[in-house]
Amino acid sequence: TAGARSGSAWIGGNNGVSLWRNDRFHTVTFRNEVWGRPASAIFDIGPDLWVAFANVGFIRMDLDEMARATIDSSHALRYDVFNPAYGAAYPDIATGGSSVVRSGNDHLSFVTGRGVGLVRLSDLAQQSTTPRPPVIEGVTANDRRYPSTAAVLPPRTNRLRIDYTVVNVSSPGNRVRFRYRLDGFDTNWVDGTLPRQAVYANLQPGDYRFRLQASTNAGTWNGAETEWAFTIEPMFYQTAAFRAVVALVLILLGIAAWRLWMRHVRKELAGVFAERLRLSREIHDTLLQTLVGLTLDLTAMSRRVAAQSVQTQLITMRRQVEECIREVRQSIWDLRSPALDRHGLVGALRAASEELTSGKVRFTLTVTGSPRPCPSHIETHVLRIGHEAVTNAVRHAQARQVQVEIGFEDRLLRLRIVDDGRGLRDDETIPGAGHYGLATMQERAADVGGRCWIESAPGAGLQVIAEFPLAPAR
Mind giving me the DSSP string for 302-350? Predict the structure, then answer.
């Protein structure tokens, strides 16, 4: 069968269609299902060329596409197939040479195994140019079948298979092309032409949306998508409520562990403090009392002995014992530092100063600002410096009155000890202080980032000032 246009002719054979033009044949070979099928009829209608193949159906292609294929043998020819396998609602064309006849501009009559059929080319063209959306046939989750309308899948869905197809669509070539993507998992479209199913494994609980598209031979994707939204339910241990309970339990366990640890630390500290108090009492009641008694005996002996050399020696021994007593008292004071925990810095400083000045000089304590807890290492050094300064004022400065001032500012703790004693000579650091002089107090202040200095003049009294940095009050 041949159709003519501008001195050319189309001739169909068993292996395709040839174009006779310019005294030579140009053969176009079809692929796939029409390979080896005889062409029953060829119709040159408008911009399209229609070819009927026995036991296949109709193929429509663009004449320009055919012309390009006759020139370039490597060109992949694009065409539309119309037969029952692709949704065309008419029987196959029977085998035969002239089994198709054109009747009018839009009708083709053809012989089939069951009689004569009639088809309108405009209906076929409409079927091809308007493909319908693909259809999701069903869903299989963990080997259990679900309808495509299922919105919820069970927890621990380890394997998911989605089957799909296309219905009543004229397909290009030998098959419909598919592509899909799963929003929430896939980042790009996936080619799903073969097989017609999408398989996913180990999906996490959450919301997903499966999107599916079909394509014609022309390479255009159908604008309408087929979508299926579903949710994979979580196991109880994957829920936000379970995670919140676990977090709460961990917090409570952490608090309980911290409280147990603090109880253990307090118990150990209490044992240490108790032992220190016991040692201080033992030293006070035994060694200190013995040394005091020895001092009294030496004093009495020095008064009764007439020899000047022996008396001088006894006085020297008494002074050595007094120095030993002073050091023992200092050791007892160091052992009793837990007073800070019982009374706080102000209370401990008041108690220590009153003990040192009781019955000897007048004592006053002034507090400015709002007292607040300070770091323990700072409180310890403040107490030691105050104790040392009051001790020196009472024992060596010949003072009649000692004033202690402690001030709490936003970022500073200030300690000031003032006496009305004899003051300092030019060659003194602290009168009679020995190795417990200004250097010791300065070292204590420097250890915690503070500073300490003395202001005095001969006969004008003395004041020790120490300042310590603090974190801002809240």
Answer: HHH---HHHHHHHHHHHHHHHHHHHHHHHHHHHHTTTHHHHHHHHHHHH
Which secondary structure element, helix H or strand E, spans residue 292, and what is its range?
helix 289-304
Q: What's the DSSP call for residue 221?
A: B
Q: Is the separation of the CB atoms in 87 and 127 below 8 Å? A: yes
**Residue 366 β-bridge partners:** 405
The label of the residue with tokens 């409570």 reads 252
With both helix axes pointing from N to C terminus, report the angle between 376-395 and 438-447 in degrees, rounded to the nearest 10.
Answer: 170
CA dihedral 46, 51, 52, 57 (to 10 degrees): -90
Q: Which residues, at least 6 apart from 150, have a Cβ–Cβ distance to it below 8 Å?
A: 139, 230
Instruction: Give the burial class of 337: count Cβ atoms within 10 A of its Cβ; 0-12 exposed, 13-18 middle, 19 or more buried.
Output: middle
Write down the H helix ranges in 8-110.
63-71
Looking at residue 115, its pLDDT comes to: 66
Cα–Cα separations (whole angstroms), residue 189 to 138, 177, 179: 20, 13, 6
The C-alpha atoms of residue 132 and residue 176 are separated, in whole angstroms, by 11
Partner residues linked to 8 by β-bridges: 5
pLDDT digits (tens, 9 = 90+) for 237-293: 888 888 899 999 999 999 999 999 988 888 887 777 677 666 765 665 556 666 666
Residue 12 has pLDDT above 70, yes or no: yes
Judge if the upstream peptide bond of residue 134 is cis by omega within 30 degrees of 0.
Answer: no
319-353 confidence digits (pLDDT tens): 777 767 766 666 666 655 556 667 788 998 998 88
How many CB atoms lie under 10 A from the CB of residue 239? 14
Q: Distance of alpha carbon 48 from its chain centroid, rounded?
A: 62
CA–CA gap between residue 57 and residue 39 (Å, rounded): 10
pTM of the model: 0.38
The two three-digit tokens of residue 257, written as one number: 């562990």
4: its two tokens: 């003519």
**Terminal alpha carbon distance of the chain:** 102
Q: What one-character-per-residue DSSP string does 90-110 give?
A: SPPPPS-SS-EEEETTTEEEE
445 or 458, greater pLDDT:
445
**Burial of 118 (C-beta count, 10 Å sphere; 0-12/13-18/19+):** exposed
Whether residue 378 contacts residue 448, with contact meaning beta carbons closer than 8 Å, is answered with: yes
Written as one letter, the residue type at 209 is R
Pairwise CA distance, residues 292 & 296, whole Å: 6
Per-residue model confidence as pLDDT tens digits over 212-235: 988 765 455 655 688 999 999 888
Write out the H or E segment, with its range, that includes residue 295.
Answer: helix 289-304
**Between β-strands 401-408 and 362-368, what pairing exists: parallel, antiparallel or unpaired?**
parallel
